[in-house]
Amino acid sequence: MKDEDLAGSKKRFRILAVDDQESILDLYQQILCPLEGEHYSTTPTPVFELTFSRYAEGAVEAVRSAIEEDRPFAMAFIDIRLPPGRSGVWAAEQIRKLDPDVGIALITGYEGTDLGEVQCRVPPLDKLLYLEKPFGDKEMWQLASSLCEKWDLDREFQKTKAELEGLVAESSSALIAATQQLEEEIKTRINAEEISRESEENFRNTILNNADGIIILNKQGIVRFLNPAAESILGRKPESLVGEPFGYKIQISHGELTEIEIDRDNGTLVPVEIRVVDVKWEGEAAHLASVRDLTEHRRVKDELEQSLSELQKNMRSTVQALALTVERRDHYTAGHQQRVADLSRAIAGEMGVSQEQTEGIYLAAFVHDIGKMGTPTEILVKPSELTELEFKLIEPHPQVAYEILKTIEFSWPIAEIVLQHHERMDGSGYPHGLQGNKILLEARILGVADVVEAMASDRPYRPAQGIDAALGEIQKNRDALYDPLVVDACLKLFTEKGFGFAA
């Protein structure tokens, strides 16, 4: 493949950079549009197109023009403090009103910014991040890559979902309309007191030419008639069926649909959908079964489900990339989420939790701190205990994580598990003060694993307390703060089964 072909296959994203310092704008250019071979990933890298602005009003106008050109920005880096006039926060507000999908990273080099007020002014939280000057080249590149990929996958997911919903609605409407039309015609032509020979002949012709299979059964389930479409679906000739029992259990339910599988003579199974109504046939009470082959319908459905499954895998990878971005902001907690995920999975296995449920616990644990992307870095790496005000800024991280994860259609309640992992059995946890079994089992497991790993590892404000102290903490508060069954399983792993955190 030629170089130009390779370049054309890469994803291209537009990024808006707003800063009053030319040196910072030059730095964006160097980091996000590097020379060949200077990017920060070994995987296929996206191509970024940068648009610069030194003023808040200019940034808003740039977004408006991009929307009108149908080439929207995937994200925007905006300095909070700009030249006299409108602030960066005002620009973020106006941009979000114009394009609610764009991701926004607010840049600040000053302390004292009221981040709580900013979060209220520029929702939603899952699309609003903070980055402090000076920022590292690799951190900037990874943040841009992760947010742009998430923006792209969100748009692709919504498009695919809309297409699927449209196909299902169109198919359902067509099936209902066709069935209703057939039923009305049958009732009109058959359920009369007397049917002339000419009318009966016309009706037979209608059934013979119908695209759906039509089978007439007497009240004892003996086949009286079948049309060519039914012959094709069943793979049987009329002479081998007429006068014989139908051979399949069908539900006589006044027009409700039933799905069964037809076994053809060649050994293949054909999924069909059958609707049965009461009629009269040749003067006798009978059943009319309309049969529709579902083979093509299921094939299309399977392809759509496979497409959605692949899309969900890609979205899951993007969430994991965002989680790694959080850890790179704070080297003290690098690997924390992975170790918590390993311990959570081990505890679930020890408790006999199903494999399917355990997988959900593992994935939730791997991203449980993703909400800290909205927390200032100076708080995450502070080398002393947090003040009450600082804790108030870090406390919303489960809710921020929930807002990010709830938009992704997982097979497990990932967003709810992460939201509840700081809840405690006695109701003293946060954010909602849930008690006992009102907390998801998965969240109770994640909560214990999180505490044990955190105490056993180094933190900015203290050295590692060791695994003995961590196990002592959960044993001391067994029942009061932590689920006793979860605590017992965790203690058994460390004391009897040799579990340990990977280096």
Distance between the termini: 42 Å
Q: What oligomeric state do the depicted chains represent?
A: single chain
Strand order, largest beta sheet: 2-1-3-4-5
Number of domains: 3
Do you know the CATH topology of the largest domain? Hypothetical protein af1432
Number of helices: 18
> Care to count the β-strands?
10
What is the CATH architecture assignment of the largest domain? Orthogonal Bundle
Overall average pLDDT: 79
Sheet of most strands: 5 strands, parallel
Strand content: 5-15%
Features:
503 residues, alpha/beta, Beta-Lactamase, Hypothetical protein af1432, five-stranded parallel β-sheet, five-stranded antiparallel β-sheet
Describe this structure in words.
By secondary structure, this protein is an alpha/beta fold. The protein folds into three domains: 7-159, Rossmann fold; 191-293, Beta-Lactamase, CATH 3.30.450.20; 329-495, Hypothetical protein af1432. It contains 18 helices and ten strands. The chain has helices at residues 3-9, 22-32, 56-68, 88-98, 115-121, 137-190, 197-208, 228-234, 295-328, 336-350, 355-366, 377-380, 388-394, 397-405, 414-420, 441-456, 467-476, 484-495; strands at 12-18, 47-53, 75-79, 103-108, 128-132, 213-218, 223-226, 257-263, 269-281, 284-293. The chain has a five-stranded parallel sheet with strand order 2-1-3-4-5, with helices on both faces. The protein has a five-stranded antiparallel sheet with strand order 7-6-10-9-8. Helix 3 packs parallel to helix 4, helix 6 (137-190) packs antiparallel against helix 9 (295-328) and helix 11 (355-366) crosses helix 16 (441-456). The longest helix is centred in the N-terminal third of the chain and has 54 residues, at 137-190.
